[in-house]
Amino acid sequence: MYAVLPEIESYEGLYAAYHDPSKITLDAVRAYALPLYEPGGRYALLKTAEEIIPANLSALIERYPTIHQPVQLIWCTDDPIVPLWVGRKLARNLRNTHLSVLRNCGHAPQEELPLQTLTLMRKFLR
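Predicted structure:
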């Protein structure tokens, strides 16, 4: 039994992440909720959240200058979860980086602005 239905949890998470909640679709809510019905689904989500900031973060950051591959960062002006200043700092610390900033978008540009995100990715991959 669930204290809160996975669909409600999923909607609340998307609502917190999106700049424009009117872009949250029922299909998206269902897709995010589905894994929470699986055995261990909630546990996996909690463990993932706990590990978002790794214990060795400082050591990882020190290694940024050793990364020589081209990097395309896509960030949104209205990301409430990982603010734009983080993206700007990351872009300064990685050598071969291009930071693209999308306006009127939250934490999920691939969902809120899929065409703009796809265009940036295609341009980078060419």
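Summary: Residues 6-17 form the longest helix (12 residues).
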